[in-house]
Design a protein that fits this description.
37% of the residues lie in helices and 22% in strands. The protein is an alpha/beta fold. Bound molecules: coenzyme A.
Length: 342
């Protein structure tokens, strides 16, 4: 460590930044047309109400931990970090391979890492929650390198007879490696600027998988009644999503004396194009600053932000020095926002 680095650490805490990104999705693509007959819906209805055209659905050979490991390998490769150098693996998921152990330890084993590893349950906000944890660990110096993954196999908790939910969801995984900022990053103001997490349990039942936990253990009857699938009050969730995402982004920006006009990219949870349009309108940010890929992936819950982020970085949309807002809302209700100077 150089003398100037020591001086810097003496006067301010470390910061963290995203060093690499990766994603992995199942090979099978299911288009809206594929769902038309079984769900009595149309491609037109789905596109107009959600913006979704197709989604990836996992085969039995593609469990979540396998997709998560593939995404993690890409992220480690891009970051130039070896799995042995990881100090922490956090996986946001509510569709783990097993109730126990955590998907994070399966990823740890597959990667050959030997660090702390756990899953967190914050539904679609899981990635932003995980990024916040990684930021705290790295900024405090408790971890040097942390892997944050969002992975969901929503097809396993989808009621394939309910056209109001089955059209929305897809499977996939996205990952980032978080590490300490360099002196050069600090000078340029780059890194994870701050994270802001929220929850409101008053709406716990508005987006819920009622069966399959200890309150309503799995039985043949509740599987038959499709109680082990996502139940959603669509309109209520929609309204909360627009309101809470917009306000959390504004307050995160205000904490840094920034305004929506300063944002280069909003990489939001890819739930519904109309939700993103609502957030854009409320915050007076034009839609061309929202990175949108939900047309090809659907809603992949905690995986959606890291998948979108990885795509946008790899296709050159996101450039060094740009200001990004990452924001998500999901079951809980939980929501959150991270400001990142890339
Ligand atoms: C699910 C969602 C697209 C439904 O759109 P909506 O405009 O609220 O539609 P409604 O549920 O009010 O249904 C309106 C009509 O469309 C019908 N409908 C619902 N799904 C349909 C489908 N896939 N195809 C055709 N018709 C459908 C309904 O039966 C209803 O018909 P009716 O008026 O004859 O009763 C919308 O509520 C939504 O996106 N909510 C947020 C979902 C979300 O993003 N959740 C995850 C957040 S993490």
């Amino acid at each position: 460590m150089s003398a100037s680095d020591r001086d810097r650490l003496a006067v301010r805490p470390l910061g963290s930044r995203i060093l690499g990104t990766g994603h992995a999705v199942p090979t099978r693509v299911v288009t809206n047309a594929d769902l038309q007959d079984s769900l009595q819906t149309t491609d037109k209805w789905i596109r107009e109400r959600t913006g979704i055209r197709e989604r990836h659905i996992a085969s039995p050979e593609e469990p979540g931990s396998v997709l998560a490991t593939r995404a993690a390998r890409h992220a480690l490769e891009t970051a130039g970090i070896a799995a042995e150098d990881l100090d922490l693996i956090v996986v946001g998921t509510f569709t783990p391979d097993y109730p126990m152990p955590a998907t994070a330890v399966l990823v740890q084993r597959a990667l050959g890492a030997s660090c702390a590893a756990f899953d967190l349950s914050a539904a679609c906000a899981g990635f932003v929650y995980g990024l916040s944890i990684a930021d705290q660990f790295v900024s405090r110096g408790t971890a040097r390198y942390a892997l944050v993954i969002g992975v969901e196999l929503l097809s396993h908790v989808t009621d394939w007879t309910d056209r109001s939910t089955a059209i929305l969801f897809g499977d996939g995984a996205g990952a980032v490696v978080v590490g300490p900022t360099s002196a050069e990053d600090v000078a340029a103001g780059r890194g994870i600027l701050s994270t802001h997490l929220f929850a409101d349990g008053a709406h716990a039942e508005s987006l819920i998988v009622p069966g399959g936990g200890t309150r309503e253990p799995i039985t043949a009857a509740n599987v038959g009644d499709r109680r082990v699938t996502i139940k959603m009050q669509g309109k209520e969730v929609f309204k909360h999503a627009v309101r809470s995402l917009a306000s959390s982004c504004r307050s995160a920006l205000a904490a840094h004396d920034l305004a929506p006009k300063d944002v280069d990219w909003v990489v939001a949870h890819q739930a519904n194009l109309r939700i993103l349009e609502g957030v854009a309108e409320r915050n007076e940010v034009s839609m061309d600053r929202f990175y949108v890929n939900l047309d090809r992936f659907g809603n992949t819950s905690s995986a959606s932000i890291p998948i979108a982020l990885d795509e946008a970085v790899r296709n050159g949309a996101i450039q060094r020095g740009q200001l990004l807002v990452l924001c998500a809302l999901g079951g809980g209700l939980t929501w959150g926002c991270a400001l990142v100077r890339w």
